[in-house]
Amino acid sequence: MLSKRIIPCLDVKDGRTVKGVNFVDLKDAGDPVALAAQYAQQGADELVFLDITATHERRDTTIDMVKAVARELNIPFTIGGGISSVANAEALLNAGADKISINSAAVRNPALIEELAKAFGVQFVVLAVDTKYTGGKNLVHLNGGRLATELETETWIKQAEELGAGEILLTSMDHDGTKQGFDCNLLDKICRSINIPVIASGGAGTTAHFTEVFTQTGVDAALAASVFHFGEIAIPDLKQELNKHGIPVRL
Predict the structure, then answer these.
(1) Rounded CA gap, 30 and 230, in Å?
(2) Is residue 179 in some structural domain?
């Protein structure tokens, strides 16, 4: 069985790492490059950087930060935020990113997924999906969660897989920042409906939440932010705990 991955996520705004609750009330959590180096040393398997206001502010993800992070890291990292073309993605790949994450631009132009997969390979393309339970349905939200759509989450993810997405980063907006646990019901449903890896995001508060998501769903990785940024969970301790529960991890 493949090792399950632990992925710290750094939401970046104005060159700083920030973290909020339910996508609002952002607090400063430190320098992204310094945090990235720290997580690599602690044994993180990958990192995700999301330039959370790039799409909303209609600008590209910062290339300089990607270069600075690439110089510090020996583990794969994904960059997302404001990526809307093959040229954007190519610039980030050339700057040192291992994968790119697309969200709003892919919903607005699904052909972008296909274009990126053909240009770089499916393993390069991560589809980020921000979902919120509204009116009895899980609906996709855009622009850092600011804009609701009528698109049902499961339908969209299946379509994205067919178009060439290589991995899904699924964030439950209802659970995000609450530290009450991942949305295991939704994650399990999505994992059963597709054949590509799923990264769980939104709701991690304790090591037990990671154990729960890996034992109750078919996710390949679990992502968290504030519990790592503010020192509430140390990655080596988390991995030892998962290992104790028979969950395969890279120690």
Answers:
(1) 9
(2) yes
Q: What is the Cα–Cα distance from 134 to 192, expressed in whole angstroms?
A: 22
From residue 140, alpha-carbon distances to 113, 127, 148, 183 in Å are 16, 12, 7, 15
Residue pair 208/238 in contact (Cβ under 8 Å)? The answer is no
**Tens digit of pLDDT per residue, the chain (251 long)?**
789 999 999 888 877 777 555 545 555 667 888 889 999 999 999 999 988 665 554 445 578 888 989 998 999 999 998 899 999 999 999 999 999 999 999 999 999 999 999 999 999 999 999 999 999 999 999 877 788 999 999 999 999 999 999 999 999 999 988 899 999 999 999 999 999 999 999 999 999 999 999 999 999 999 998 899 889 999 999 999 999 999 999 99
Active site residues: 11, 130
Place of tokens 């969970």: 233
Q: Look up the CATH number of the domain holding residue 94.
A: 3.20.20.70
Tally of domains in the chain: 1
Which residues form the domain of 239? 5-244
